[in-house]
Amino acid sequence: MFAADSGIETLQAFATSIGVGLLIGLERERQSDVKAGLRTFALVGLLGCLSGLLAEATSSGWIIAAGFLSIAAMMIAAIVSDPLDDGDPGTTSVVAMMVCYALGAMIWYGYSSVAVMLSIATTVLLYFKAQLHGISKSLTHTDLLSIIQFGVLSMVILPILPNQDYGPYDALNPHQIWWMVVLISGVSLAGYASLRLIGARHGAALIGIFGGLASSTATTMIFARHARAEANLARTAMVVILLANIVVMIRLGFVSFVVAPAIITPLALVLGGGVVLGIVATFWGWRQLESGDALPMPNVTNPTEIRTALTFGALYAVILLLSSWLQDIAGSKGLYLIALASGLTDVDAIVLSSLRLFNTAQISPVETVTAIVLATLANLAFKTGLVVVIGGAALAKRTLPGLAAIAVGLIGALLLTG
Question: Per residue in 228-251, is it b (16+ CB within 10 Å) or e — as a string?
Answer without folding.
Answer: beeeebbbbbbbbbbbbbbbbbbb
